Amino acid sequence: MKNKIFYITTPIYYVNAEPHIGHAYTTIVADFLARWHRLAGYDTFFLTGTDEHGEKIAQAAQKNGEEPQAFVDRMSARFREAWEKLCIEYDDFIRTTEERHKKVVQYVLQKVYDAGDIYYGEYEGLYCVGCERFLTEKELVDGCCPDHGTVPERRREGNYFFRMEKYREWLRSHIQANPDFIRPEGYRNEVLSMLSEPIGDLSISRPRRRVPWGIPLPWDENHVTYVWFDALLNYVSALGYPEGEKYHRFWTHAWHLIGKDILKPHAVFWPTMLKSAGIPLYRCLNVGGFLLGPDGRKMSKSLGNVVDPFALAEKYGPDVVRYYLLRELPYGQDGAVGEPGLVERYNADLANDLGNLLSRTVTMIEKFCGGHIPAPGLPEGPDHELIALAGELPDRLESLISRLEITEALKAIWKFIGRANKYIDETAPWTLAKDPGKRERLATVLYNLAEALRIISVHISPIMPNTPSEIRQQLGIADESLFTWESVRKWGCLPAGLKIGGKRIIFPRIENAVEVKTESGSGKEEKAVEQKAAVVKCDDSRDGLISIDEFARIDLRVALVLEAARIEGADKLLKLKVKIGEEERQIVAGIAKHYSPEELVGKKIVVVANLKPAKLKGVESQGMLLAASTKDKLTLVTVENDIEPGAKVK
Fold this sequence. Notes:
Blueprint: E1 5-9, E2 13-14, H1 21-39, E3 43-51, H2 55-63, H3 68-85, E4 92-95, H4 99-114, E5 118-128, E6 133-135, E7 153-162, H5 168-177, E8 182-183, H6 185-194, E9 202-203, E10 205-207, E11 216-217, E12 220-225, H7 227-231, H8 234-237, H9 245-250, E13 254-259, H10 263-277, E14 284-288, E15 291-292, H11 309-316, H12 318-328, E16 335-336, H13 339-369, H14 383-402, H15 406-427, H16 429-432, H17 439-459, H18 467-475, H19 485-488, H20 523-540, H21 548-552, E17 556-567, E18 570-580, E19 583-589, H22 597-600, E20 604-608, E21 614-616, E22 619-621, E23 624-625, E24 627-629, E25 634-636
Parallel strand pairs: 1-3, 1-13, 2-3, 3-4, 8-14, 13-14, 15-16
Antiparallel strand pairs: 5-6, 5-7, 7-9, 10-12, 11-12, 17-18, 17-20, 18-19, 20-23, 21-22, 24-25
């Protein structure tokens, strides 16, 4: 990214209904991108808002016994409140009922009209109130609107039309010449397919006698502008088009985020409108998929699979919801979401990985260094890999985020977190602390862990805006210059001697399983619920069972046996030297009556890698191997030769 200016927009959300998880997901993605670009030094502007005109709004207001303006005021406020709950920090919130927006809409309409691209005509066709547009027979599915599932009304009325077909070939050529104009590629191809045949002209007005809730056409007060010709212009009206400084600074850098259900208006209507008005095009259109219920089906109250992101934020915190949605759903794809998935991701990534790294580091600094960040010595051994991975991360993230590979960006951050956790196991600070001659090495290891956490706190700040401050407080870091993008490119910025703030568990594990309830008239689904209930009842009556979360705490790894020897004075024990990834460990096992040392060397076995060290006959064992046994037989659990040592056993 050579240009250091970034403008990100969400769709402006239609206020005929409450904010939902689809709105939340798109807005969280936009907020993440805005925060990341600000962090990386971009001059950034983030716009969201509400779409408040049209036939559906008037109908919804009437249904609620309110005047349209009072209705949209109340509903627009709901969206602001919702974004506050998810820690959304926008730069502007545009409303299409604001005067600043109305002026721009009428200015552009007049400009396009004066250019000869708007004309009056009679039209008869199939009209979907939900879409607020006429549909072609080709767009219908079994006679219904594909998005709303309703049978469109046949209407005939006089409207003003925009000469959209005039710009079809130009738009097609532009999209072909600019592969990143519409992303992901599948949606680009879909639009090119639309443009391969005539698209017709666009009805841009409605008679005011039928739809009074709208912006009047500047040349004909008897008509109001069609909702899309109104709503889409928010992206420039919020910037002060045509003369505003923000318009000139940000507009050509615009990234639009939308759901795939509004692809055609943004990919076809909008660029042709801009071309006619003489306004430069936006930089790119980024199309998101649909969020499905935890059962993989479209969310529906009748199915009981609707996920409320605001209730989840209240229960688990906004950072957890933000992380879950950004990590779980590759942008552009459909994906199932739900509370069980959130809890699983929380335990694995936040409690086990990030939370555990912070807790272990702070505990060891308190215990071994008197609660102060120690001064490091020269790096050696595994230090170099940790430091190199930290150095590679900023450019890796910039590359991924520029391609909207947000899920992969989060994976890259968590790869570094995983490497830091592995570093603890490799360096074994608790062992170093026992040797007075290893004090400098111990100090280096603990400094490196604190420095890794400082860097992690910066990288996760666009994802989870509240968590970094908790990490920094525990490490005693207050200097804001240590949280900049420049600071994460340089290892060793953390000053030694800081007094840490003390350990607090930031992500305690969630041990109780989440109950999922579904409602359906399908006998098959009811049977599945009954079977699940039967299993739970059966499990509750048995002794000694562990939960899936308890099992997940056991870290099983493939280990290669490098050496094996008998232990003097212990007929049943063998001492093994094994390799787990890049680490070598010693394991003592009671298998001498079943295996000779010679036949074990070269075997790939399965070991419990996160077992606390223990001494057997005075010899320390740093793990436990797995074996199957009967009364007089014992066989080691082994794996095929193409699995590398250190691979996780699942």
